[in-house]
Amino acid sequence: PEKRVTDERAGLARIDGPARKFVVLTQPRSGSTWLVKYSDGFARAAGVVTEGEVLHPDRIRKAAPRLLGYAPAAPLSVAELYVYLRGSYAELARGVGWHASSQRQRNNATAAAEAPPPRLVGAKIMHHQLPAPTPTHAAVTPGAAGTLGRVAVDPVLRFAQFHGVAVVQLYRENQLARYVSLLAIETQHLAYHGADGAPTSAANDAHAPVAVDAVKAWDFCHVHARQNLALAAYLGRRVPPAYLAVVPYEALLRPETATLFFDDLRAKVGLPRGGPYAPGPPPRPCRDRVSNWDALLAGPRPFNRTVWRRMCETEDRVVADAWRYGPAKEFYRGFDEPAPTPTRGLAKPAPNRGLAKKNKKSRQKRADAAPAGRAAPSTTPSTTTTAEAKGTSLLARDVLWRHGFFDGEFPLVIRQRGARRLTPLVSRAER
Fold it and tell me: Is the peptide bond before 75 cis (omega within 30 degrees of 0)?
């Protein structure tokens, strides 16, 4: 009998080479092919080598015999997943993958020899390609309907923790345009990708108009928007902020927001800031892609009041507002209303000057009495917020509730009995 991989430690051993690593978690028709293979601000930077859907069944079938030594039975076990991912990233670190030279050379070996040494390597994983839950790795949203109730992301996060992999969540803000694209592919038998894996957004946008069912489209948009939000909250609680980037696809297409998000993304994965960046493929208005557009807006679901309708009619324009789209990555979806002002806390009482002076003297006495060789406690207040210190999510609960994206508790209740706890990628001194 052939020997199978059962030791998880084999896939957590160090990968040789100085290249930084990233993984993109995304949904179909969210611009991931353009981002990891064709974007000037990311994929075409010097030294970037990428792979497509690293956990696609066809890719596993072809690469597993080379990386594992045998053809595994689907799905991969956690130990097989670690070894498979480690081998995939090791090949990318040797330059075997998709990069600027391979877009001109079909011979991958020749392209790898001509390309500069890899300094950033990565791949993408669709939500539905994540491993199934196990007794030690719970689902993202246990017991909930949808894809995230049937998959676990913790094995991928544990692999990322051991290998220093930056996690990028790429989502599409305009879920209605995404639904129309998937509906056109299904009903008109269009290709998911063009020649050599090129994105088909421009080609598929030229399809014949399709009739959209308002109820099905509404349910799709809200379910998938909630799933993106739930995954962002989940990642925000488990991945240190320095290793996590949450990126809306449309923000990478518009000049007014591309610099902000590309620079943040490049900083998280170890690339220098650049810009200006070439815009992505321009979208086609939804009105030209949907045969019953007016009826859809006046139908049984209030699409007329949603941000998806506004984006469909403004070329997927996102609001370039620092409060909505700043470093905190506030998620703002749903009804197209002005951005609410952040909720302010209660007014603090006037400080007791005498008590403050007394406390200051007490701190000074303790500092003077500190033993030699031991650092005195700092009297300067820390500027690190509680959320930054714990690596928690920075999502604003009042904003999400106001726009109807959670009907229950926030954050989502995540049950992980017996699950392994991920150690943040920070040193003891930084903690």
Answer: yes
pTM for the full predicted model: 0.73
d(CA 394, CA 327): 10
The set of residues, in sequence order, having a beta carbon less than 8 Å from that of 144 and lying 6+ positions away, is: 230, 412
Secondary structure letter of residue 31 according to DSSP: S
User: Pick from 199, 146, 156: which is nearest to 25 by CA?
Assistant: 156
Residue 121 phi, psi dihedral angles, 5° rounding:
-130, 150
Q: Tens digits of per-residue pLDDT, 247-275?
A: 888 888 877 778 888 988 999 999 998 87
Q: Which two tokens stand for residue 396?
A: 């604003």
Distance between CA 211 and CA 293 in Å, rounded?
A: 8
By three-state DSSP, how is residue 133 classified? coil
Structure tokens at 43: 């994929």
φ/ψ bin of 240: left (φ > 0), alpha (ψ from -120 to 50), beta (otherwise): beta
Length of the chain: 431
Residue 86: C-alpha distances to residues 36, 78, 90, 211 (Å): 19, 12, 6, 45
Residue 67's identity, in one-letter code, is L
Q: CA 66, CA 94: separation in Å to the nearest integer?
A: 15
* Sheet strand arrangement including 244-248: 48-53, 120-126, 20-26, 165-171, 244-248
pLDDT tens digits, 168-216? 999 988 899 999 999 998 998 888 776 655 666 555 557 889 999 999 9
Backbone angles phi, psi at 287, to 5 degrees: -60, -35
36 to 143, 192, 378, 429: CA distances (angstroms): 32, 16, 45, 35
- Cβ proximity of 184 and 204 under 8 Å: yes
Which of 111, 287, 89, 327 has the alpha carbon at shortest distance from 205?
287
Count of CB atoms situated within 10 Å of the CB of 214: 17
Peptide bond into 117 cis (omega under 30): no
CB half-sphere exposure, 348, CA atoms < 13 A: 3
3-state SS, residue 121: strand
pLDDT score of 31 more than 70: yes
DSSP string, 36-73: III-TTTTTSTTEEEEEETT-HHHHHHHHHHHHSS-PP
Alpha-carbon Rg for the chain, nearest whole angstrom, is 24
Q: From CA 96, how far away is CA 112, in angstroms rounded? A: 6
